[in-house]
Amino acid sequence: MAIGLALATPLAGMLLMLLFARLPNLRDTVMVLTAATMFVLVLQVLPEVQAGGRPSLQLFELMPGLAIAFEVEPLGMLFALVASGLWIVTALYAIGYMRGAHEKHHTRFYAFFAIALFSALGIAFAKNMFTLFVFYEILSLSTYPLVAHKGTEAAKRGARIYLGLLLGTSIGFQLLAILLTWHLTGTLDFTDGGIMEGKVGHGIGAILLLLYMYGIGKAALMPFHRWLPEAMVAPTPVSALLHAVAVVKAGVFTVLKVSIYLFGLDYLQELVTTDWVMYIAAFTLIAASLVALQQDNLKARLAYSTVSQLSYIVLGAMLASQIAAIGGGMHIAMHAFGKITLFFCAGAIYVATSKTEISQMDGLGRRMPFTMGAFLLGALCVIGAPPMGGLWSKWHLILGALDSGQQLMIAVFLVSTLLNVAYLIPPVIRAFLRPPRDGYTGGIREAPLLCVAPLTFTALGAFAMFFLAGPLRGLLEGMFP
Amino acid sequence: MIEHHLPALQVLLPLFAAPLLMFLVRWPTLAWAVTTAVCWAALLVSALLLEAVWAGGPISYAHGGWEPPYGIEYRVDTVNAFVLLIISGISAIVMPFARDSVEQEVPRDRIAWFYTAFLLANAGLLGIAITGDAFNIFVFFEISAIASYALIAMGRDRRALLASFTYLIMGTIGTTFLLIGIGFLYMMTGTLNLADLAERLPAVHDTSTIRAAFAFIAVGVSLKLALFPLHLWLPNAYTYAPSMVTVFLAATATKVAIYVLLRFFYSVFGVEFSFGVLPMGYVLMPLALLGILIPSIVATFQADVKRMLAYSSVAQVGYIILGFSFASTLGLMAAMLHLFNHAITKAALFMALGAIVYRIGSPRIDAMAGIARDMPWTMAAFVVGGLSLIGVPLTAGFITKWHLLLAALEAGLWPIAVFLLATSLIALIYIGRVVEAAYFRERPAGAVPVREAHPALLLPTWALALASVVFGIHTALPIGAAARAAELLLGGYP
Amino acid sequence: MEWLGLYNYWVVVVLMMTGFYVVIAQGNLIKKIVGLNIFQTSVFVFYISLAKLDGGTAPVYVEGTTAYTNPLPHVLILTAIVVSVALTAMGLALAVRVYEAYGSLEEDEINAQDEQDA
To answer: Domain range spanning residue C13?
Structure first.
């Protein structure tokens, strides 16, 4: 029941927002209320999942055995909680940002935002790969207008690349993989322990794995990662919630789902290509970090950082050990808090000062101490330093690598952590330790409150995650009954 | 009593109503009303027929009490009951659209004549589908074709005349080839009844006469169904015909020709002969693949949206023929499903486009820039139709693609599966161009603001757009019918 | 010399190819229609030929005859001739309209005019 309501909430909210398009204050209130309602409804499902239950809901059956149906399992629960919880914060932030940065077409923007959240939730709760695919495509399509929002040539070009890559990979590879899976196994349901064992030969299974991994373009595995930096032309709330949380996490979430519930970790271990994908992920992880180092544009640097962090999770899945999978799942939450904080900060800097480049940020800490303080916390979380939540997910991933005997991967994790430090800490140093270039002495002048409050909140959230790692792990262990 | 005569009524209703309309030249609205009534009655008849066939198996109707194989037999089974439903359903649904549409495009004193030709075309198409007699197929082909030439020539653009003339030449060559093929068959078997032919053919299969008959029929009908590369008449004819005619022909005319080809290949000659003795799979499949790829690419370069959709229709014929060429249950199901799904989808698209053209006066993509703000409902229907054309999940188009892809995988032809997915992306590009222009561009400077389309145009458009979603979700009827039809076709004549 | 005995089929082939060639090669719309007519006529001859039985008479009961020519193809061809007449009428009507609209019946001149418009 709560599942259906939770899914219906963003749609209903969208309709109300369209209805109140002429009354901006009421419309914005509706958005925040919608987000809050959705979060509360998602929360209703949690106790049952924690108790080991798998609440489910079937909407309709297209063909025998092929249905649009939902079933909540721990990983989906976590993703749904993260996405819907952070939507509340982002909704508040978006109001401040859109008004502060004088963007146009607010209603259209918020409406598509709501659809994006609706589809993210659909992905989280999907019972079978087909349902997941449908919502995956809705997510791609609904975020297209958000990326193209500014309507400039650059925005349109970025949006075209964005949609082209995401749809191209999903239709060209993922749909093919889904069809093959259906053809070979006769089911697409996410099942504990996978559905492939004994039905799909290892040769075809190996090809299927590649098709899935590259078909899930949202996981941004190189060389299909270009859409993510291109998507940065979007207004910052989009970059923050969608391209640090909902869209990209939908990608890696799908990777985890496919690995755990379609292939099954045992079966995955036996495939040749698992190692290939693992090395590709490791390469992406390091290469993207190196590219991030070169970027002067703050959002571009964060985007490449995201590409790199996503590969942590793909790598976690490919290690094919339970502990690594749990680490991957935790990283969805930890990275979400860290990265959304960083994007919020980037947006707040833009709203307050119109600055977008890191080289312009000298001395910014004197003007925006809260923002830059939050930036530091967010950066620490992404790096995985104590006392932030990011520590635990990396910890589990490294444990998983040990578990699978992949010492090389431990080295990769450690090197990339150093790289994280190298590209995330300099902006903070510039902001706090260097004198302002433009000789700014005006004291504290932060972005609007609706921008600063959310980012402070998420920064504190990233800190709180440090202490919530235990329950989180408890929840995720439910993936392997 | 009347139930017994349903097969005859199916054709006779529009056929006899057509000349009556000539007396209504002064009252065009009345002519429209009569046509609408006839179309809905025909729909009712075909629904009853489908129901009867579903429950009780094939129906045979002997004209004038002359028993088959000597008399002309009308024979309805699941396959053609399904096709009949498509034809009469589309013509019934487009009639509300027709009133405004025809008034805008056809001079007032010719409206009744227009409907006469429309009903004749309709009768011809229904006749092709329902008859169980080979020569009768030829006659009905010509009835519908001559009426369609007249309909196309009524387009406002003078290029419609030449388009119609080209269609006349190519169409006549096609039907004459069919006639030659039928002559050869008659020569060898002494019968024209399709079921009887199917029975007698195996004895004389291995003769060059039968092979020649096969070749003439295949080429002749392929011309009519616009199989690539015999499609050259189609883009101009669809582009310059009145909107209503384009909607009707795009949804039905090529579909019926495809049905005839299916009937001959599967029921009359039999799967073994068509796909075993003769390598039709290897002939049709490459043609279908090229026929999907090249027109799809050509469609992306069209500046005229109507022409773009016309090329897309050629590509969609390719999908149907591809399904057909697998000679498997899944492939045939895909073909039958696409007959249905493409009919509703393309009709919705052409109607939405027609409604837009009436407002802005041009089918060009540039003229449609920013139109979504002025005509949100029409454009939304276009988007829904477009999604179904691309084959997005939860639309009818997806159901077809799904079966087609599974058929390809089942045949072990996974490169074809990859190919199909890639061509869906091409459809995405050409539909995307229109959507981008309509939603993300500003109205051209100096363009007059336009109003939303008239509800009479909008309602049928949305009815079909919704149908293409509903049949993407509740698939029991089309899949059930397609499955039965496929079974029937593979089993030869029951 | 068996193939000479099938001379009417050879006539069919020659007529058919002539008609077909005229349809394709001629740019004049009227000539295309003439070609189409020749093409169709060849099919009529073909049907009539296949009905003929050596030594057969008209299918009327006459004492002493046992072989009859098959009447059915004649009937079919009567229908086909009607169809052909209708088609010719349609084609000519179109040609008249084309002439009214373009002032020419030559395909290349008409196409040239269309290109000028576009």
So the answer is: 7-117
The answer to whether residue C1 sits within a structural domain is no
Neighbours of chain C (3+ CB pairs under 8 A): B
Contacts with C79 from chain B: Cβ below 8 Å: 135, 139
Cα C82 to Cα B139, C41, C48, C88, C106, distances in angstroms: 10, 12, 16, 10, 28
More confident residue, B164 or B203: B164
Q: Which residues of B touch A176 (CB under 8 A)?
A: 405, 414, 417-418, 421
Specify if C2 maps to a domain. Answer: no
| DSSP states along B235-275 | HHHHHHS-HHHHHHHHHHHHHHHHHHHHIIIIIIS-HIIII
Distance (Å, whole) CA B323 – CA B332: 6
Residue C75 belongs to a domain: yes
pLDDT in tens, A177-213: 888 888 888 888 888 878 887 777 888 888 888 888 8
HSE, CB side, 13 Å, CA atoms: give it for residue A436: 14
Residue B1 pLDDT: 52
Question: Is the Cβ of C15 closer than 8 Å to some Cβ of chain B?
Answer: no
C73 touches chain B (CB under 8 A): yes
Give burial (CB, 10 Å; 0-12/13-18/19+) of B460: buried
Measured between beta carbons, the chain B residues lying within 8 angstroms of C105 are: none
Judged by CB atoms within 8 Å, which residues 209-248 of B form the interface with C? none
CA–CA dist B164, B234 (Å, integer): 10
Tokens 């498997």 -> residue:
B328
Interface contact A172-B402, CB threshold 8 A: no
Residues in a beta bridge with A128: A189
CB B78 within 8 A of CB B54: yes
C70 found inside a domain: yes
CATH at residue C17: 1.10.287.3510
Whether the bond between B69 and the residue before it is cis, its omega within 30 degrees of 0, is yes
CA distances from A335 to A119, A287, A307, B155, B475 (A): 20, 19, 12, 62, 42
For the ranges A315-324, B210-219, B280-289, B321-330, the lowest mean pLDDT is seen at A315-324
Separation between Cα atoms, residue A13 and residue B186, nearest integer Å: 68
Q: Contact B324/B253 with Cβ under 8 angstroms? A: no
Q: Roughly how many angstroms between the first and final C-alpha of chain A, as a whole number?
A: 24
pLDDT tens digits, one per residue of A425-473: 888 888 777 777 766 666 677 777 777 788 888 888 888 888 887 888 8
Q: How many residues does chain C have?
A: 118
* Main-chain dihedrals φ then ψ at residue B205, nearest 5 degrees: -50, -45
Task: Give the number of other Cβ atoms within 10 Å of residue B120's Cβ.
Answer: 23
pLDDT of residue C3: 65
Task: Report the complex ipTM.
Answer: 0.92
A56-63 and A66-71 as β-strands: parallel, antiparallel, unpaired?
antiparallel
Quick check: B18 contacting C, CB < 8 Å?
no
Contact at CB, A133 and B393, closer than 8 angstroms = yes
C110 — contact with chain B (CB < 8 Å)? yes
Show the DSSP H helices in A354-389 as ranges.
364-367, 369-383
pTM of the model: 0.87
Asked if the Cβ–Cβ distance from B424 to A63 is below 8 Å, we say no
> C79 touching B, CB under 8 A?
yes
Cβ of B161 within 8 Å of Cβ of C98? The answer is yes
For chain B, say whether C22 makes contact (Cβ under 8 Å): no
How many domains is chain C built from? 1
Tens digit of each residue's pLDDT (9 = 90 or more) over A112-159: 888 888 888 889 888 888 899 989 988 888 888 888 877 777 888 888
Domain extents for chain A?
2-479
C-beta of residue B164 within 8 angstroms of C-beta of residue B156: no
Contact B440 A180 (CB under 8 A): no
Chain B CB contacts of C12 under 8 Å are: none
